[in-house]
Amino acid sequence: MSAPTLGVIGAGVIGSSVAHAAAAAGYAVTLVDTGTAALDAARAAVRRHERLAALLGGREPRPLDIRFSTDLADVAGAGFVVENTTESEPGKRELYPLLDKALAPGVTIAANTSAIPIARLAECLADPGRVVGVHFMNPVDRIDMVEVVRAPATSDTALAAVEDLLGRMGKRSVVVNDAPGFVINRVLMPVVNLAAAVVADGVATPNQVDELFKGCLGHTSGPLRTADLIGLDTVVRTLEVLHEHYGTTEFATHPHLRRMVDEGRTGAKSGRGFYSYDGS
Questions:
Q1: What does UniProt give as the signal peptide span (predicted)?
Q2: Co-location of 219 and 173 in the same domain
Q3: 247 is in an annotated binding site
């Protein structure tokens, strides 16, 4: 029996993590990005994910069926597609008609966006019912809850396809209605924003903020460590999307966050964010 096929579009932090987790669950994955440098980084990231999974699982690393490509046509035969491109509504709206042409009719597209309303992406397709929001958390193989977003046009068939994918990957899900930021990021991003303000004002260090969230509120990871894992550039882009849609002050990016991104301190992926990851 052949393995189920999955196309993953976008080979950044979350895209490479999705590709690894799906391949580890038995999918034959095609990971597509426009840049060869991004694909090279994704190969290295997949190896890191698998080495860590093997270490935590007390086993040897396993070979994974992942094909890396710069050609969108290579996902034409996929039975399901997860889109993880940069958090840019114009960029995604340009991509979705291309996916519509490349994929067979009825193939579900999971939009793994941080804040862009799913309906805004689905309306670019001939069949908007095939699009579902599927908000994976990083690292995908270790976080078993997924936020699933049903847009007004999302079909029952597409939701069932998502349920099958997540079931094969060993995930649980909560299905919510469509709105900018959905649940997780509409709540989390203002918390990160305010935590950055607390640090900038000298009230507490990043570690003190996170220790309080863990010790007092039972969080497994505080907001600033979480922000570093997400990527502070992604946090800023997400806040910008939320501010554009809601226009309220809690989504106005704090200058400290923007300054960190401008300095290249984007979190774990760059080696430095609120914490250091480069051994210094």
A1: 1-21
A2: no
A3: no
